[in-house]
Amino acid sequence: MSAQIPLDDILAIEHLLSEDEKLARDTIRSWIKERYRPLLNQAHRDGIFPVEIIPEIAELGVFGANIEGYDCAGMNNVSYGLVMQELERGDSGLRSLVSVQGALVMYPILTFGDEEQRQKYLPKLAKGEFVGCFGLTEPMAGSDPGAMKTTAKKDGDSYVLDGVKAWITSSPIADIAIIWAKCVDEDNIIRGFIVERDFNGFTTPDIEGKFSLRASPTGEIHLNECRVPAANMLAASGGLKSPLSCLTQARYGIGWGVTGAAMDCYQTVLDYGLERIQFNQPIASFQLYQSYLAEMATQLVNMQLLTLHYGRLKDAQALSPIQVSMLKRHNVAAARKIASDARSMLGGIGITDAYPVMRHMMNLESVYTYEGTHEIHTLALGRALTGISAFD
Ligand code: TGC
Ligand code: FAD
User: Domain 132-234 carries which CATH code?
Assistant: First the structure.
C-alpha cells in the first residue's frame, strides 16, 4: 500500500488562503459537523427546515457575511465563499437560506434602498431576527423574468401590488419579501419593494411534494391588492438589471457552495471504497473505482481554482456577471456529475440516507435549475462569446 495524498494537497490550497479565510472555513465546517449534521436526516425525511436553529446560524455571522456595517461580519469574498462551501457541504438547503438572505434580500436593500431602509432591516436580517425571501419568478415567467405579470400601482402614499410569485425559497417562513413588480404608472419599469409578512393581501402557500431541497421551505407568494407604503419601494432600483444584479451575487455563492456538496460526496466514496470489500479486496483497489475518484478529484481541483480565482477578482471589484455565469454553470454541472457518480459507487446503500450522497444528488437538481438554468447560462455565455443573442 502506498501513501494517500489528501485532495487539499493536490491544489495546495492551504498556501493560497489567509489565516482569516481558513478560520472562517474551519469554524463553519466544525459547526456543520457538530450541530447541523445531527439534525439533517430527520429534517430531510420530514421535509422541514429546523427554524429553531436560525439564531445560532446568525451567531456564526453568515447572514450578509460580505457586507460591511449594519451588524454584518464584513468578510472578504473568499471567506464568504468558503462559508458557502462549508454550509453546502452540509446541505444545499441551508446554503440556500443563507445566500437568499444575504445576496437576494440584504444586497438589494443595501444597494437600492435608502439609509432608513438599511437601518430598519439590515441589522435584523444579520441577526436572524428577520428571515427574508426574494420574489422574482412567476408561474409564467421563469427563465424569462422580464415577462413578469406582477404589477405595482401608485395610490396616495402606497403602492398596490398584485400578482403571484412561484418557487420562492424561504417564503413560507419569511418575515419580509423583496418583490419585483412592474410599475404601471412608470411605463412598466421593474422595481423592488420590501413587503412585510403582516401587510394585508400577502400570503405564502407551501409547495408540496418536493424530492429536492427537502430541508428548505419553498413556497409561492400571492399578492392580492397588497398595500405597501411608498417608503418601502427600493427607489434606486429600476429595470430588469436590478434583480439580475442580485442574482449575480447569489450565483457567486452557489459556485462555491456546490463545491462543498461535491467534496462531501467525494470524501464519502473515498472512505467507503477503502472499507467496502468485494472479491476479497477493497473496492477502491479496482481500476474502475479509481478512475471515478481520479475524475472527481480533478474536477474538484478545477472547481476550487475557479472559485478562488473569481473570489480574488471579486475582492478586487473586477468580477463580471458573465464570469459568474461561467462559474455557476461549470461548478453546478460538475457537482451534479460527481454526486451522481458517487451515488452509483455506493451501490444499493447509496439510495438511502445512511450516506449524504443521494440527498446532495437530489438537492443539486434544484441548484442546476435555479438562479438561471444550465441552459440559460449556456446561452448567456454563447451571447457573450459571439455577440449574438439566442434569446431574441
Ligand atoms: P438582458 O437584456 O440580457 O438584460 C437586461 C439588463 O440586465 C443586465 N444584466 C445583468 N446585470 C447584472 N447581472 C447579470 N447577471 C445580468 N444579466 C443581464 C443587462 O446588461 C441589461 O442591462 P441594461 O442596462 O442594458 O438594461 O435581459 P433578457 O431579458 O435578454 O434576459 C437575459 C437572461 C435570460 C440571461 C436573464 O433574464 C436570466 O438570467 N434569466 C434567468 C432567470 C433567473 O436566474 N432567475 C432566478 C430567480 S431567483 C432564484 O432562482 C433564487 S434560488 C435561491 C436559492 O435558493 O439559493
Ligand atoms: P422554464 O423557464 O420554464 O424552463 C424550463 C426548461 O426550458 C429548462 O430546462 C430551461 O433551461 C429551458 N429553457 C427555457 N428557455 C430556454 C431557451 N431560451 N433556450 C433553451 N432552453 C430554454 N425564484 C425566485 O425568484 N426566488 C427564489 O427564491 C427561488 N427559489 C427556487 C427554489 C427552488 C427549489 C427552485 C426549483 C426554483 C427556485 N426559483 C426561485 C425559481 C427558479 O429560478 C426557476 O425555476 C428557474 O429560473 C427556471 O424557471 P422555470 O422553472 O419557470 O423553468
Answer: 2.40.110.10
